[in-house]
Every structure is written in structure tokens, then in C-alpha cells.
């Protein structure tokens, strides 16, 4: 059954079918989740095991080694990375793409269970975590209040955070920079010694006296009465009056040997926003949830809380959804402008309102239908899917143009409307099906890509494929139906080449000029081949000049200035240094570009976070601003390493690719000897710092943290009736503090902590005076049973596949391409001679870049093969597809100069554009060759006559389809606005390649067609 005939003869049914598609698409668009990138299934598991108060080297030996050996036999594991640090072991397993992560988790859990009994009893049960790229805060809020920080923290954790957790799609809510209440029992060492008590005696007394226990039921008369013994502390005075022991008939109370203080836990994180101490809340989203919707609801909850409460005020510090929404809106605007430009160029060519309207109608119908596909396949509206629509807008009308242009020619040849619709569509059906299929099949190799880069393009491929199928369906049904009813071109009327109109005369001159040029090219084919070959060779020589990187640099709205000092630096010292850094940053940064400035201080490191205004609200690029700040802060603070980084809009990719801190450049120095690794890493760092394109070089292994090791004399403690655990517990209580129950007040619970008063634990000499009770009841100083050893211990030990590794990471200056920088760096690093057992590997983003290059190379080869197969099946010949495919390499002649002139790098986006070009550029050649064969078959024209006539008749539809595709992508190619850089590289590659290949194809393909068929004729004659 002919689908075109059914559509023309049943116009109401055809109209209703498309109305159903539109309704479903509109409803699907309303409920589509919005995100920056497609959901990425990343097959990674992390095994986290806690062993409190144990150093990194012991963690590596006791925990990490055993876990790595246990999971070595789990199927599909490609790489094992581990990190051993104080009190914690993390082993990360990277699985092959396509691995069922739930089944893998069961295999890992079974492997861990087999070694669980080999761990010391103090080791907590290992926990298995799936990697979720969405597990990063969607919004970060600041909270300011007239209340004190402890009260504010408690309100945020107990009341406010629950409001945000109830948001549909929201995950956990983190509170940073809080101050926590703690009941402190500050022991006085001299008083303890004179009373012959130890810290353990005080702790046990508090635990013994602070208890409430049920007594059971008591029957009294006709009723049952519940009995409960209440002994919990009701006030701080009760704690102070607790009797520890009785000596010579006199009670020794807590207040006699300690001071009970209603205080606060030691600060390990300090947050300031815009110069004021504050608390921050980070709202995360659940996997697969709509980022923009979660952020919008979080903002609504924030505003509602601000209306309801007058004791605090919440405000938005960072909103990730703003960049996402702005970038999507930017792509949306580019798509609209691209569609309008495509329609405008159609009207210029057609000069007829009805024909322009019929063709233009295929754009919204195909797009709206695609929204329905996204919804029913549970996909998201993101940069890739919406970008696919924007990129496909120009191609969507190609089929309708070819069909309608042929229908108009039928009308000009005095055919009636219905005959023009049916015959005009039938003549080009084969050509448009072939051209559509050749464009579709280039996306099939994307399904076989095994890298994260490849996964990013699956939704783009799906969107473009479905939009093109919709456009083909529209061209074969709706366009001929509307043409048979509403085409205003009269029989015999010349609309597009009317000699009486100025545009018509111009088209006639163009066609005549093209025919003369084509005749000349056919006569001088050898010269034509030489010129095209020379252009191709020159282009190939220019190819190495293209800068190479993984993904385009995308301007985002955040800059981080990270300050790092020696391990063990006190948080108070860090506070002083960071305020100096803040002053420098304020002086060197145009503050009219900054929305909020946040300071976060931790022991040993701190950072200044600049939340910038949106890209369309500021005048400076974030990467340029980061370079400016870097030049002014580096070297200004003695003893500090400072790193300045502009967060990329595609920063999530670095978190996926990088194993370190997600910097652009990452090297792995693998080798067992940590001291030698430190020395080599410093040499590598110095070499990297000489490169002008590289900034903020840093090694992952910092100078070890100061450590005072107390080694217990086992013979002495055995004679005193003590154990190592008893001695260690006493030291822990005196220095770090031990919990002695809880104090409840107003429905809240606060820890009671026993610890030496601050003035009794100021230096390492105080450690020796700590009292411990021997087995015979005597009090002896710790110095009698231990010896001290001072050293610096490694803070972390990282490994890759069992090898210890040191990461050297760095940022790139704005405009520097990763591939070019690494190429220069590799030659410079050859001067370093690595000892036996050491190796140096470029990893992270560069490693993914190499994998992506292999993926795209394979995709291009597969695309060429598939396109040939489709065309061979369509033409029912082996030779004609080869003629058409001559146009494929010609696209490079346009791609390389375009990328060089626009300063665009060779990245995954531009490579995807080259893959798309393979399917796009052959469309014009297919239309031309198919029409030549049609004229030879139906009108018995000779080869040369058929080539010249087909070229003249197909010139306008080829120019129209190429122009609409180019103009449809033109707004994207400018790369303006938030996130505009993401699709710009792809659009530029397609525009440059298609423009040049179209111009060359119009002359070269006819010449090649004649040469090949003349050769075949001579071969047959022999």
C-alpha cells in the first residue's frame, strides 16, 4: 500500500494522525526532566571500611591489601584503585561498560564476607557504595541569624533540613560550618594526681551515675503501675556533684578534680559568607531526579521559610540549575533562530507563501514528536538532546524541500495538483529514503561506544534519528497531502525561475552559469581532480595545527581559590592566612562580577569560593578572571600552595574521568618507595611549572602530618597488671576526649566528654604526666610504661592495581588545549630517568581523550561501511555508491580551516560533527546521482547530457537543503550565552564541512560519474 497515496486521498485521517502526535509531544514536553547532561551509568563501586585511630600504613596492610586481594576475582573488573588514610580504607572498582552494577555489587559483597573474620574486631563492617555522578549539591544555601551559631546549627539540622529533604527528588541535606554544643568535663591533672584518680575513674563514675532503667510493672489495686528508675542528669550541677569515690570517709566529687563547662566541640570547619560567619546547607538530588525542578522547589521552600520565620534568613549562594536552565534556554533560542533562518532562506528560494509554509510545517511537527519520544523513553531534556534538535533543524526540512520542489516542477509542467503530489513524491522517494538512512546509520556506531564520551552522545543520536524519521514520514505523507490541497502554484506557472522577477532572473543566470561551469569541468576533469587533490593534501598538512582536548572549555559561574599548607596546621593559623588571601582576592577581583564570596577553613587547607553572576550578566569570562586572580595571589603567602580554578560547566566530566581532584592535567607516578616517589614527584613538578600553559601544579602526597608515637613497654605493663588497650584508652580520654554518656535538655541530646583541661595538654611533655591506674590500684604516670617517638607519617597512601601511586595534577591556562600541552610535556619529561619499579602514566582526562579518539575512529570507519551498504541497497549497484562517497573526504577541506579560523579545538564535539558530516554530505551527492540515473532510465539521455541536465535541475534543491542545514546551525556556531561553547564546536565543524563539500560536490561528483561510467563502458567494450 502506497503511504503517499493514502495520505493524499484521506486528508482528514492524515491531519488527525499528526494532531495526535502533536498532543502527545506537547504533553511529554511539559513533564520532561531538565538536566545539564544525559544520565550516565558509570559502572563503579567503592568499598569503604573504617578502622578508627589507625594510621594509613597500618590501614593499607590490615584492610586495603586484604580487600584488594578478595575482589581480584570479581568478574569484569577493569581497574582497582585504593586510598588508605587515617581510620579509613577506600577501594574503588572500575567495571567494564555494560556491567550490571547490582549483580557486581552482590559479587563484591560475597567476596568481602569471606574475609570479614580476618579483620581485627574493632574494624567496622565494610560498606559498598555505588558511584552516582548526580551525588553533588544541586543548591548551596547560606543561613544568617541573630541567634548564636550553636542554636542556628541545631535549628538547621533538626527543623530546616527536614523541610528540604521532603522535596520530591531531593536526597540528603548536608550542614557545613556548624557549631555543636558539648558538655565538657575538663580534668585538672594536679587535682587528679593529689586525689590518686585517673581520667578513667571520672569517666566510669559519670557513666555509672547517668542512667535511666525500666523497673517493670507493679500491680496496685485494680490498675498496673509502670516503675522506672530515673537517674539521668537534669543539670550541670548534678554532673559536678557526682561522687567519683570516697577516700577516708570523704567523697571526692567531679567538681573537686574537674570543671564542668557547657561548651562547644572543637571546630574542624569554619564558614564565612560575604565576610560574616554563617552555616551552609547543601541540597543533593536523588539519582535521575530533575535537577532544575529540585532547585526550583528548594528555592520555593527557602522563600516560604523566610516568610514564616523572623529568627533566621536563608539565601541562595550557589544554584547549579541556573547554569543548566540558562544553557538549555540558550540552545532553545539558537534552535528558534535557526528555524527562522531556515524558513527565511526557503522563502528566498521558493518565493511562494504556500510552499514555504508547507515545508516549514515539518520543523515544529518533527520537534514536538521528538519530545514525545524523550518522555516515553524516560530521557531528559539536556544539552545533548536539545542540542540534537537544534542541530537537526536544518536537516529536518531537507526531505520536504526535495519533495515539494519536485511537486512544483510537476505543476510548472502542467500537471494537476493530485498528479503533481503523487508523481513528484514518487520520483524522489527513493532518493530521500536513501539520504535519510545514510544520515541515520552514522549514529548506529555511537551505540557501540564504550567510553563516557560515547555515552554522552547516545541521546543526541537518538533525538536526531527520530527527528529525521519524523521528517521523512512528514515528507511522504503530510507534504504531498497539503500540496495537493493548498499549493497555490498554477499549472504552467513559473514561480522560482520566472524571468519577469528579479530573483527569477538571478536563478536562471545561476543555473546557466553552473551548466557552463559544469561543462568546462567535465571537459577538464584531470585539472579538476588535481585542484581538489591539492586542496585535500594542504588540509591534511593543516590538521596537526588543530589544538586537541577532550571537551570544550565551558564558562561557568564559580571560581575556587584553594589554599594548602603543611599537614597539621592549626585551624586558627589557617584562619589568619586565609584572611590575608581573601584581602588579596578582593583587591584583584572586580567585585561587580561576584554575587557571593564564601570562605571555608579546615585544618591544613582552606578555600575562597567566588559565586559569579550568570554569563549574560557579567562582562568577564570566568577563565580570564581566574587567570587574573592567579597572577596576583601566587607567591604572596609564604609557605602556602595556592590553586585557582574556574569551574567548568562540564565539570562533572572531570569528576568522572579524573582519579585525583578532577584537574585537567593528571599524571600518575607509580612505585612502592614513598620517599623516593616524593623526590621524583617534586622533580616532575618543577619541570611542569616551567611550561607557560600549565598552572597550579600540585602533588597528592603532602609533607606528612606531625605524629607523636607512644610505644608501650609490654613487660612493664604486664608487671603492673595493665594491658595495651587500657593504656591507649587512658591516653585517648585525656588528650582527645572520651564520651561519658549524654545530657538531655528540651528534647535534645548533647554528649558529655571527659578530657584534660586545655592548659594541661599544650605540649608533648604533658603526655608523660598522664595518670594511669595500675592493677594494684596505684597511680603511675604514662611515661613510666611508654617511650616516645616523633615523626611525620603519610596522610594518605593511594594505589592503582596494587601499585602505590602519587598523583601530580595541574590546571591549564585559559585557551590552552590539553592534547597540545601533554605532547610538549612528554618531550620535557624524557629527561627524568625513573628508577626500577617506577613508571609515569598520563591519566584522567587525557586517558579518556585517547579512548574517545579510538572510539570515534572506529565510529567513522563503521559509518563509512554502513553508508556504502545502504546506498548499494538503494541503487542496486556497487559502483554508484563509490561515486557518491567521493564527497566524504572533501568535507575535511572545509572542516579544518573553519576550526582554525574560529579558534575551535578538536574535541569530542567537533569529532561528533565530523561523524555527522559523513552522513550529511552524501545526501546532496545521492540526490544528484539518483536523478542522473532517473534521466538516463526514463528519458534515455546519454551520460554527459543526463549529468548536465540533472545538475541544472537539482542545483536549487541541493542549495536549499545545504543552506537550511547551515543556517539552522549558524546560531549554535556563535557559541554565545551560558553553555554555548558545548555545541558550538559541533556546529562549526558541520557548517564548514558541508559548505565546502557542497560547492565541490556540485562540480566533482558529475565529473567522477562520467569518468567512472566511461571507464566501465570501455571495459565492457573490451
Explain briefly what this protein structure is.
The protein is of the alpha+beta class. It has 34 helices and 31 strands.
Provide an overview of this structure.
The chain is α+β, with helices and mostly antiparallel strands and 1022 residues long. Helices cover 53% and strands 20% of the residues. The strands form 8 sheets. Strands 1, 2, 3, 4, 21, 22, 29, 30 and 31 form a 9-stranded antiparallel sheet that branches. A 6-stranded antiparallel sheet has the order 14-13-18-19-17-20. Strands 6-15-5-16 form a 4-stranded antiparallel sheet. A hairpin with a 2-residue loop joins strand 2 and strand 3. Helix 1 packs parallel to helix 18, helix 12 packs antiparallel against helix 18 and helix 31 packs antiparallel against helix 32. The two termini are 44 Å apart. The mean pLDDT is 82.
Residue stretches low in confidence (pLDDT < 50, at least 5 long) are none
CA radius of gyration is 37 Å
Structure class:
alpha+beta
Question: How many alpha or pi helices?
Answer: 34
Main beta sheet strand tally, sense and closure:
9 strands, antiparallel
The helical percent reads 40-55%
Number of DSSP-assigned strands: 31
Name the quaternary structure.
single chain
C-alpha geometry: elongated
Mean pLDDT: 82
Report the portion of residues in β strands.
15-25%
Distance between the termini: 44 Å
Pick out its properties:
1022 residues; alpha+beta; nine-stranded antiparallel beta sheet; six-stranded antiparallel beta sheet; 31 strands; 53% helix; elongated
